[in-house]
Amino acid sequence: MSVTTRDARPLLEVKGLRMHFPITEGLVTRKLVGEVKAVDGIDFTVRRGETLGLVGESGCGKTTTGRCILRLERPTGGEILYDGVDIAKMERKDLLALRRRIQVIFQDPYSSLNPRMKVGDILSEPMKVHGIEPDAGRRTARVRDLLSVCGLNQRFADRYPHEMSGGQRQRVGIARALALNPEFIVCDEAVSALDVSIQAQVVNLLEDLREQFGLTYLFIAHDLSVVRHLCQRVAVMYLGRIVEMADSDELFGNPMHPYTQALLAAVPVPDPSVEMHRSFRPVQGEVPSPINPPSGCVFHPRCAIAVAGCKETRPELRELRPGHFVACSEVG
Amino acid sequence: MPPLLEVRDLHTEFRTGAGIVRAVDGISYSVDPGETVAIVGESGSGKSVSALSVMRLIPDPPGRIVSGEILFAGRDVMQLTEEEMREVRGGDIGMVFQEPMTSLNPVLTIGRQITETLEQHRGMDRAAAHQRAIELLGLVGISDAARRLKQYPHQLSGGMRQRIMIAIALACDPKLIIADEPTTALDVTIQAQILELMKDLTRRLNVALIIITHNLGVVARYANRVNVMYAGRLVESGAAAEVYHNPRHPYTMALLRSVPRLDRPRQERLDPVEGQPPDLTRLDAGCSFRPRCRFAVETCAVMRPPLEQAGAPGHLAACFQSAVVGLETGAAA
């Protein structure tokens, strides 16, 4: 079973995080004409040893949030306290040390592995960059270890990514993330591109590694059933904001925000007898543009229970039950 | 009543650098008028090729329909000329593909793409076709039709583009729609909108639907019958409820057990299908699921199990051990 060490101080603390991308016009004199509010003021924490799920649909800002934590983007506002240190404004030269502690697994193992490098080189590269295991022999031994903990035969070290299946490639992506012995891994849709039968293998591997190495994950995904399986806590994002956050059992057992409810209802259950008796009305409309998000509560144009006030004021996250936060003025 | 579509012993192969890939290796299935049949399987299982073969949309080279019969509404599709085939595609058989951005023409307006179909297949004049296009947009839930018809595909969202694809597929009152992963590229709330729309329209207009998907939940909600494919072959076929509750092929059983479910208590651990799918260029004489199968016996290495009745009438499975599998799944149910 998963480890939930309830440490006094969280490993990661995100406060008022904002990532607004500028939209410019003109080739010579770039004029600012607007902003994409990809992430618009979110707060959450991740405890040591915990897996926090970040779910939502395309454009909700979940990937951008992950990229800010990895400092692949420099946030335009807010704080990211990693182990007590604000990394949001850290300079480029100071980031190298951070990269050893925070790693990433990407969605697409086809485009995130260098096709010209053998798997062995892909796995030793981060060790070279960070100057750990300078001895070539020990590096090779470490590559063998990494392959083995990720369930790959050692002869894969001499293969190229194109000689492997999608599931095997994703295992290489995971082994690469582990190469530097990180504490924290951002899994950005890490199992979404895999076939159903392979997906379960990789989910189990991620769980095993979490226990074996005491890892902490930020698990970004849109597949709610995988998120429920893998995460202790879940935050639901919509249009750059967190609309609901709770322990996994609580969130899936007692969803309170109308958007979370709509999201859960939209997932068909793989059981014809259940589906035969389940009727639901899909939530209407589509996600509005983050360039010009709706006023007040960003979900109000699609919300079945919206009242006049929802257009005016942006609802803040309120703790309606212990550890269960909801940003909706109409529930609770 | 005779089936609307009957596919008999279809073989489709692709010549690749690594050898010949038997993408579809002798499959037979049928679709009745008005029913929804799902073809489910993983990447490379041949599910798309099996449906594209029906439309004779296999790029040649490298692909080729080697043998088999495809009877649609009493006509042998394999005997039709290319000219006649064009009449069938988009006429009696509509198509909806995964990525509407690549299947819509980016330089033509939405309106033109719908009216073109109507003028081509139904000989309508411009005015009549325009009128029908407005009707069709209403049917697929797009308001403000007059404005939308003047727009180009890139000006629409993914969900909206898929609605347009459905409108085009429905334009000529087809008898059958083939939808290849129609919602895989869409978000879950939009997926629900599109699938509910397709279900509603196919029922209302009595159109048969072949839905190709890897999503077991989508099959459970929308299909009357399901065909499960593995490595180019049909391994199990039957009424959706029957196949889900009483699977007779080890692959189907393992696949259903491997997915986490929101309607059940959280499992300690997922139960994956171990191993990897086979290399299609190197299939041997035996059952291709054998290396991953815990029910395998000696016979499985020697010959391929034929698709035979297993369990209830109409329920077929290609497994020598289907009775043993049935005992286990029956006990679990």
Structure description:
The complex is a heterodimer of chains A (332) and B (333). Chain A is α/β, with parallel strands linked by helices and 332 residues long. Chain A has a single domain (12-326), classed as Rossmann fold (3-Layer(aba) Sandwich). Chain A has 10 helices and 12 strands. In chain A, the strands form 2 sheets. An 8-stranded mixed beta sheet of chain A has the order 6-7-8-3-9-10-12-11, with helices on both faces. A 4-stranded antiparallel beta sheet of chain A has the order 2-1-4-5. In chain A, a hairpin with a 2-residue loop joins strand 9 and strand 10 (241-247). Chain A is globular. In chain B, strand 1 (5-16) and strand 2 (19-31) form a beta hairpin. Chain B has a domain at 249-333. The two termini of chain B are 33 Å apart. Chain B has 333 residues and is of the alpha/beta class. In chain B, the strands form 2 sheets. Chain B has an 8-stranded mixed beta sheet with strand order 6-7-8-3-9-10-12-11, sandwiched between helices. In chain B, strands 2-1-4-5 form a 4-stranded antiparallel beta sheet. Chain B is built from 13 helices and 12 strands. The longest helix of chain B is centred in the middle third of the chain and has 17 residues, at 188-204. Classes of the chains: A alpha/beta (332), B alpha/beta (333). Chains A and B meet through helix 5, helix 6, helix 7, helix 8 and helix 9 of A and helix 8, helix 9, helix 10 and helix 11 of B.
The percentage helix of chain A is 25-40%
Helix content of chain B: 25-40%
- The helix/strand series of chain A, from N terminus to C terminus, equals EEEHEEHEHHHEHEHEEHHHEE
The biggest sheet of chain A amounts to: 8 strands, mixed
- Largest interface, and how many residues on either side? A-B, 48 and 47 residues
Uncertain stretches of chain B? none
Mean pLDDT of chain B: 92
